[in-house]
């Protein structure tokens, strides 16, 4: 997630260093509306993005189609005018469409394909007793973060003195995605008359409703929560229960049909509603299988991402839930989240608060009051539901076995190296990834990084297309022994600067992909045929994201993990620290062309080669 310098916004209050969330929400003027980029600028940027990817004949064909679409008075101009009208009459002209199209209408499973996971450094314990102590602390920390939001005490995040939109923070809690026959919906219960006061705890595939507030409205102390977790453990010994959470890992059509069957029974409706309305979920997992230390980081990240399979902890997940915290008996822990309601930046802020809170002692003694027993959630499972569960177990295990996860810590250098050489660390890593992919596959491919649009009201994300003409020139020259070091250095700087320029455009609201999507959806909304520019093979290829990347910088040695966007692609996430960089790379085993371990090794050797280019040892 890219966060860099913004353009000025005209609002005196925007210069305050701490402004409450409620104040921010009540005065949207401090965060400007997201602009609709100029049509000509977007079409020109689109063609430039295709130049390093398409052969000349295909590029010429696409260029003719783009010029026809963008001619004065043509279809593109008409759709542009309607988008500008939409922008004047909505909070954000693209966000609702984007969430609907990218998430709610996407029918692939949330497990692996959509929900990102963040794996954090292993805690210093290796038994269930310490697991519950830490889980109690974690719950208290999350409740403390929520209290800051509720009281309006969460500072408005800023980018070089300019405020960012904070709308998504309250939606993190008591939210869930709900499957539907054709598209999903989002259910948010945090603003109801009686806001939920419970979380869901799951262990050995068994779900419990745990109240985390006392009858007087005060938050339970860590010792109170710990006592309740001990009760839950004592009630969840058996592991022969049906893994109901597995159903949420299914294809969305399949889960939607099973969801309707499940809710025909009153007991099931009450249990599902308790999970959906809960503030968040806590998954108490059995230990991650220990192998070599080198493989453990990958196994740990995969465990948070999907649970490890039906014979491991996948039955402890409810993938529709917005926030799921995972704590294993072996000290592994992390967070899995659903993207329709929240994003990596908000989750990173929450995790930062948790880590700070966990360093503090428990500030309160437990009051001497009896606590209600945690409520075990029951499910009535008939033959149809049993069949649904068995099918979901088979499909999830196939998906998990197909996913290769490679997590590693590159220790040779971190973001200080490019900084010393006056290069943007993120742009430097992006160029390194382009070179690495080319070294493995001998071609450039459609690649996207993510830029935040939170500097605009209701803004979400935009793509930054990593392949540029400058990156291609550098990639072609780097392994050519006839090219001098000085020329390679010059080409590297040009490639990095080209990526920085694209990032700046995206942060100004002038990226190309959300605009192109808006034009396409505007045509559909008007009942028009999809414009030819979007039926072109060039557009299909340019949006087949073989390399999906994301930087989620954090103050801790955490790493995000997610699945590739396409069957023959990779997902690469990285967290650069001062003297090292954490990476996760995923690919599907079913594709013979891709291999996560090969790309991981190539990324490491490429980074070392770039270090030698910048700072030769001889």
List the helices and strands and how they pair.
Layout: H1 21-26, H2 39-50, H3 56-70, H4 75-89, H5 95-104, E1 117-120, H6 128-150, E2 158-159, E3 162-163, E4 175-178, E5 185-188, E6 198-203, E7 206-211, H7 222-234, H8 252-262, H9 266-277, E8 281-285, H10 293-306, E9 323-328, E10 333-337, H11 344-358, E11 375-376, H12 383-402, E12 403-410, H13 416-420, H14 425-441, E13 447-452, E14 461-465, H15 469-478, H16 485-507, H17 513-525, H18 532-535, H19 537-542, E15 547-551, E16 559-561, E17 570-576, E18 581-588, H20 596-614
Parallel strand pairs: 6-8, 8-9, 13-15, 15-17
Antiparallel strand pairs: 1-10, 1-16, 2-3, 4-5, 6-7, 7-11, 9-10, 12-18, 13-14, 17-18
Helix pairs in contact: 2-3, 4-17, 6-7, 6-11, 14-15, 14-16, 14-20, 15-16
Name of the CATH class of the largest domain:
Alpha Beta
Output the CATH topology of the largest domain: Chloramphenicol Acetyltransferase
Shape: globular
The biggest beta sheet is recorded as: 8 strands, mixed
The CATH superfamily of the largest domain is identified as Choline/Carnitine o-acyltransferase, domain 2
Q: DSSP strand (E) fraction?
A: 5-15%
Second CATH tier, the architecture of the largest domain: 2-Layer Sandwich
Task: Indicate how many domains the architecture comprises.
Answer: 2
For this entry, what is the oligomeric state of its chains? single chain
């Amino acid at each position: 997630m890219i966060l860099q310098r913004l353009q000025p916004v005209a609002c005196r209050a925007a210069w305050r260093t701490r402004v409450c969330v409620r104040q921010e929400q009540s005065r949207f003027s401090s965060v400007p509306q997201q602009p609709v980029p100029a049509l000509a600028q977007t079409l020109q940027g689109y063609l430039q993005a295709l130049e390093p990817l398409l052969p000349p004949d295909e590029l010429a064909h696409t260029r003719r189609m783009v010029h026809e679409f963008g001619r004065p008075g043509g279809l593109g101009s008409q759709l542009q005018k309607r988008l500008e009208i939409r922008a004047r009459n909505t909070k954000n002209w693209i966000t609702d469409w984007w969430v609907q199209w990218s998430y709610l209408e996407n029918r692939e499973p949330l497990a692996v394909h959509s929900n990102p996971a963040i794996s954090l450094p292993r805690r210093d314990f290796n038994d269930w007793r310490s697991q519950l102590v830490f889980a109690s602390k974690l719950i208290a920390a999350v409740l403390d973060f929520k209290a800051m939001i509720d009281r309006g005490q969460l500072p408005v995040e800023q980018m070089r003195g300019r405020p960012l939109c904070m709308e998504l923070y309250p939606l993190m809690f008591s939210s869930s995605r709900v499957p539907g026959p054709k598209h999903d919906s989002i259910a948010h219960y945090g603003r109801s008359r009686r806001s939920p006061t419970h979380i869901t705890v799951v262990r050995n595939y068994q779900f419990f409703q745990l109240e985390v507030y006392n009858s007087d409205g005060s938050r339970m102390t860590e010792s109170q929560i710990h006592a309740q977790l001990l009760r839950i453990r004592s009630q969840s010994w058996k592991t022969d229960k049906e893994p109901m959470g597995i159903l949420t890992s299914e294809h969305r059509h399949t889960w939607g049909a099973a969801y309707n069957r499940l809710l025909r029974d009153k007991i099931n409706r009450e249990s599902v509603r308790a999970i959906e309305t809960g503030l968040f979920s806590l998954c108490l997992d059995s230990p991650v299988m220990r192998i070599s230390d080198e493989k453990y980081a990958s196994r740990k990240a995969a465990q948070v991402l999907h649970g490890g399979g039906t014979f491991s902890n996948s039955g402890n997940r409810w993938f529709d839930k917005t926030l799921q915290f995972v704590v294993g008996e072996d000290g592994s822990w992390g967070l899995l989240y659903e993207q329709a309601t929240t994003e990596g930046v908000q989750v990173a802020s929450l995790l930062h608060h948790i880590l700070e809170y966990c360093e503090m002692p428990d500030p309160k003694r437990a009051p001497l009051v009896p606590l209600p027993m945690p409520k075990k959630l029951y499910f009535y499972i008939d033959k149809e539901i049993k069949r649904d569960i068995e099918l979901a177990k088979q499909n999830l295990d196939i998906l998990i076995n197909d996913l290769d996860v490679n997590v590693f810590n590159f220790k040779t250098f971190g973001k200080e190296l490019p900084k010393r050489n006056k290069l943007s660390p993120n742009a430097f890593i992006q160029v390194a990834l382009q070179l690495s992919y080319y070294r493995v596959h001998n071609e450039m491919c459609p690649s996207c990084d993510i830029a935040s649009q939170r500097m605009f009201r209701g803004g979400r994300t935009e793509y930054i297309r990593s392949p540029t003409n400058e990156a291609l020139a550098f990639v072609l020259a780097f392994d050519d022994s006839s090219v001098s070091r000085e020329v390679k250095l010059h080409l590297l700087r040009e490639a990095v600067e080209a990526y920085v320029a694209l990032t700046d455009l995206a942060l100004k609201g002038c990226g190309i992909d959300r605009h192109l999507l808006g034009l396409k959806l505007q045509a559909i909304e008007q009942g028009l045929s999809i414009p030819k520019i979007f039926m072109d093979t060039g557009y299909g290829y340019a949006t087949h994201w073989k390399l999906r990347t994301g930087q989620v910088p954090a103050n801790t040695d955490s790493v995000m993990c997610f699945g590739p966007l396409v069957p023959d692609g990779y997902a690469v996430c990285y967290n650069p620290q001062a003297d090292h960089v954490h990476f996760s790379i995923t690919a599907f085993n079913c594709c013979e062309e891709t291999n996560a371990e090969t790309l991981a090794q190539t990324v490491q050797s490429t980074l070392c080669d770039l270090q030698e280019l910048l700072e030769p040892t001889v």
